[in-house]
Design brief:
By secondary structure, this protein is α/β, with parallel strands linked by helices. It is built from 7 helices and 7 strands; from the N terminus they run βαβαβαβαββαβαα. Helix 2 (59-67) links the parallel strand 2 and strand 3.
Length: 198
């Protein structure tokens, strides 16, 4: 059994575009890098995760990930949406022996080892674990067993409910888990203000 985590991420310089009104380009790039590094550190410290991979179209991100001891997968097809990129990466991880994969968004500043352990325990009882964002519309963590059991809906409006409906249609057992550490992501200026106040 090989338990992987997968982090999909664009280039640091292209991250957090919705914060362009409050952060300069270099500040956005640094924030994106800092958030990514935090997620990697948490996953590396998590006994529930044995291997970590990143999928990105950015050479800089892939090289940085490799320096952190993370497997770097290339997203070389600019025409693909996030869902297709993730599905391709999951197939690659399955070929590498992954029996389960936890897909984590790269912008979770409050993510903890305990959050990851809780999702992993729930995956022992389910085929799919979905952890939503604060609005309970997006999906910030998806855990899958086996790795390719559920085609991704990431990047689509209301991905949480799309994932849940698709899993149910396939006949998979699904758990939706609420987690404050996973739910909080950095998308809007109000999120950044909340992060700074903490």
């Amino acid at each position: 059994m090989s338990r992987w985590a997968l982090i999909p991420i664009k280039g640091f310089e292209r991250g957090k575009s919705r914060l362009s009104g409050v952060l300069a380009p270099l500040e956005r790039a640094q924030l994106t890098r800092d958030l990514f590094e935090h997620v990697v550190r948490v996953l590396r410290a998590s006994p529930a995760i044995e291997e970590i991979a990143v999928v990105s179209d950015s050479v800089e991100v892939r090289e940085h990930a490799e320096r952190m001891g993370v497997v770097a997968l290339s997203d070389a097809d600019d025409s693909q949406g996030l869902a297709d990129v993730v599905d391709d990466a999951l197939r690659q991880l399955e070929h590498r022996g992954a029996t389960s994969v936890m897909i984590c968004m790269s912008d979770l500043p409050h993510l903890t080892v305990q959050d990851i352990a809780s999702v992993a325990r729930q995956l022992d009882e389910s085929d799919v674990v979905l952890v939503p964002d604060l609005l309970q519309q997006g999906t910030n963590v998806i855990a899958l067993k086996p790795a390719t059991c559920l085609p991704s809906c990431l990047g689509h409006e209301d991905s949480l409910h799309r994932h849940h409906a698709r899993a149910r249609d396939i006949g998979l057992t699904v758990s939706v888990q609420l987690s404050s550490g996973i739910a909080f992501d950095i998308d809007r200026p109000s999120d950044l203000e909340r992060l700074r106040r903490r």
